[in-house]
Amino acid sequence: MDNNYSMLFPCPPSSSSTSSYQISISNNNNDNSNQQQHGFISGLNNNNNNNNNGQSSNNSAFLDLKFHEQQLKRSEEDKEEEEDERINVSDHQLGGGSSSSSNKKKGEKKVRKPRYAFQTRSQVDILDDGYRWRKYGQKAVKNNKFPRSYYRCTHQGCNVKKQVQRLTKDEGIVVTTYEGVHTHPIEKTTDNFEHILSQMQIYTPF
DNA sequence: CGTCTTTGACCCGCGC
DNA sequence: GCGCGGGTCAAAGACG
Asked: Nucleotides of chain B within 7 Å of a protein C-beta?
């Protein structure tokens, strides 16, 4: 469907960065079959808005990105997405309570965009990918001592979301899950991110 | 004062 | 039908 990777990386990488990250990406088909391969990326940097960045990320110059399509019962939903208008399943609205940003009409089925998950070895939870995110929720996750944080892109009209979660098994790994594609250019660039992009082009299976 | 995070409540889907 | 877990909302607070 949307296998146009370049759309996902609106900022062309420059080769000027001298930072020393190494990236390894591997498809991680841990769950079921029927995998698709899409890519999205989250760079490594401090987002100095909020997080616990007392611990410097400079030491964690080794990035270990593992990339896998998240298998969220998505295969059937993708199929149904096209004929979505025809289906009248339920008349619920998104989210808790009164107002929903996506004004779904009565009878429309909730459409989930495909999601792309990355595992990133990083000291910090928040990875600066050049976009501005606003946190809108945090939930405790079953079988995980770390909570999952929910972020939404703050750009007007851009409905991209991401989830950030640290693994219990390996506390150094942060799983970042993106949902949707940005409809606007990147808002700020970082050397780290650009460097990661340049690496990604090598490894991304076009 | 504007922006962002925190956090409890709410809603929904799904399995039993 | 019920309970659980995931996802979202929105008011309140923190912060620059």
From this structure: 4-14
